[in-house]
Amino acid sequence: MISFCRCFLLTIFICESFISTQNLNYVALRAELTESLDDVLDFINNFHYQMNLDVWLALTLVEVKIQKKCIYQQGGHFGNFCVFSNVQMTRKLKMQKIIAQFLMDAHQWVLNDVFLHNQLHNLGIYGSWTVVNVTKNKIARYNGVSSDDCLTELLSSLRTHSSCVVSSSCQEFMFGNRVDTGYILTHRLLYLHIMRMLRCPLEESFSEKLTRNYCSLILKEARTNEILGFPQHDLFLEQVILCGLEGYTEFLNANWTLTILSWKTKPGCYKNGNDDLNGRKINSRSANVISFGCTNHATGLGAATLALNLRYVLFKIFSTVRS
Predict the structure, then answer these.
(1) Distance between CA 229 and CA 273 in Å, rounded?
(2) E strand or H helix at 60, and its extent?
(3) 3-class secondary-structure state, position 46
(4) Of 22, 105, 228, 306, which residue is most buried, by most CB within 10 angstroms?
(5) Residue 157 contacts by C-beta under 8 Å, 6 or more apart in sequence?
(6) How far apart are CA 291 and CA 301, in angstroms?
(7) Contact (CB, 8 A) for 241 and 305
(8) Cα 39 to the chain's mean position, in Å?
(9) Tens digit of pLDDT for each residue in 141-178?
């Protein structure tokens, strides 16, 4: 049984009287994000038996994004503005216990405390792409090697207490000089992030450059997804989460935030994409269809994305109050 303990503290509303008129939109957006996140967490709680490992990882990121930066103080007068107090759950995992404990520990995840504005390369869009291009790369596999294989190999150092293990095939997968798209690209970024979590011997300048390049390519693909009417919700949510975790505000614009809010179904879950697009069913790479036609993977991603956007909106509100 999953136990959720959430407290949406009334203290956060005290600041609204100090917020200028130009930021009233952020206040309204904060309220909508808070309510939507609450809805999704309620759904996951009520249908926990339909969830999988992806959902638990996403909920860990919810905890990272909210708890790590939910303390906005105004001269010490209002204390903590903590919208999301705690997530406690019984996690049924198929992974090695020590690996699971590491990934499910919110304190292990690296969160950029500084939001980065206009730091990505503007690569435009993929002008020749169609819906098929957006939805075809559903499996994160390169030359017969899956990203899960490489992540398992990397995380094996937790069991053996050895240095980070990267085989030649995984080195080519994750660091090869090529342009990838879809889940291959997002999983390359995730792999790099976990290497930083493990404190693998990476030069900071190399890591920052690679992260910026990956998110620039991801932004190009996300914008293409938007131009085509967002046929792939699941992938877009993953893109927003992973690059948002790095602090890139290009993924946190108001239009995309409102779009993500609109995708939440009335019961509080998320679907992978358009139910039917040109007569073809759009399925997630690995998700299971759950109640109300939603998928567990997209629902977990939805929760994490809402938390990410809420963190950014709170930052905008309270940084304005300070100034």
Answers:
(1) 10
(2) helix 53-67
(3) helix
(4) 306
(5) 163, 164, 165, 198
(6) 16
(7) yes
(8) 18
(9) 999 999 999 998 998 877 776 778 899 999 999 999 99
3-class SS of residue 87: coil
Q: Are 296 and 251 in contact (CB under 8 A)?
A: no
DSSP tag of 284: -
The token pair at 265 is: 């179904």
Residue with tokens 């993500």: 260
Token pair recorded at residue 281: 């069913």
> Contact 320/297 with Cβ under 8 angstroms?
no
- 3-class SS at 95? coil
- Reading the block at residue 141, the tokens are 């596999």
Chain-centroid distance, C-alpha 93 = 20
Angle at 18 (CA atoms; ends 12, 21), nearest 5 degrees? 110
Q: Which of 173, 153, 148 is nearest to 163 (CA)?
A: 153
Q: Please name which of 125, 134, 164, 123 lies closest in space to residue 235, comparing C-alpha atoms.
A: 134
Rounded Cα distance between 264 and 86, Å, is: 22
Are 292 and 267 within 8 A, CB to CB? yes
Please enumerate, as own/partner, the contacts of 141-146 that have beta carbons within 8 Å and a separation of 24 or more. 141/184, 142/172, 142/173, 142/176, 142/180, 142/184, 143/169, 143/172, 143/173, 145/169, 145/170, 145/173
pTM of structure:
0.83
**Token pair in block for residue 122:** 């503007």
pLDDT tens, residue by residue, 83-131: 344 334 433 344 456 666 777 777 777 667 789 999 999 999 999 999 9
